[in-house]
Write a structure and sequence with these properties.
Elements (H helix, E strand, L loop, with lengths): L6 H11 L10 H14 L4 H9 L21 H8 L6 H20 L1 H5 L3 H9 L6 H8 L4 H13 L14 H7 L7
Helix pairs in contact: 2-3, 2-9, 3-5, 4-5, 5-8, 5-9
């Protein structure tokens, strides 16, 4: 299991691998920053802004030797949430872990949502199990932070603009620092 032990580890990971393409016309770091800016503009709580910023961190652990293959779901949402376990609490990690489920939920609940997905999201949806069944949707609604996961999913869908975000990772460091489980961690 991969774990990050400090904010420095996290920022170094984004500095080293954040320039990789996201699968859309945007890099991983730009996607992360755009999603965080959208959450912030929406008046989301700090925990959801940080979740929006870090929701795809699991993709950054995919190296060239462990390159993403279009036919394999690496469960980046679970990898990312587990990697952040030593740094952030459930209010940050759970929406991250549930953001793929939120896509599947929205595809079940709203056919227009499914029709509006980008080609890359449609491809990954098939690997992730497709739209939820009625039973899966009901179970999703019974989990803590399910509404936050839906909000995160909306930011995720919108954070794919080709132009750079107006903010940098360092701009969100104080917010992340304030949410650390052990605030003595740098």
């Amino acid at each position: 299991m991969i774990k990050l032990s400090s904010l420095e580890d996290l920022t170094a990971l984004y500095a080293e691998r954040g320039g990789s393409l996201y699968g859309e016309a945007v890099t991983q770091i730009q996607h992360a920053l755009q999603c965080a800016c959208l959450a912030e503009a929406d008046g989301a709580p700090a925990s959801l802004i940080v979740a929006a910023l870090l929701h795809d961190v699991g993709h950054l652990f995919e190296t060239e030797a462990y390159a993403p293959e279009p036919e394999v779901d690496r469960r980046h949402e679970i990898v990312g949430a587990q990697a952040l376990k030593g740094l952030f609490g459930e209010a940050v990690r759970t929406p991250i872990a549930m953001h793929v489920g939120a896509k599947r939920y929205l595809c079940f609940k709203d056919p227009a949502y499914l029709e509006g997905l980008s080609p890359a999201s449609v491809q990954s949806l098939a690997l992730q199990g497709g739209p939820f069944t009625a039973a899966e949707a009901a179970a999703f609604e019974g989990r803590p932070y399910w509404r936050e996961a839906l909000a995160l999913r909306r930011y995720d869908d919108l954070g794919k603009a080709a132009e750079p975000a107006a903010r940098a990772m360092a701009d969100f460091a104080p917010l992340m620092r304030g949410l650390l489980i052990n605030r003595a961690t740098p």
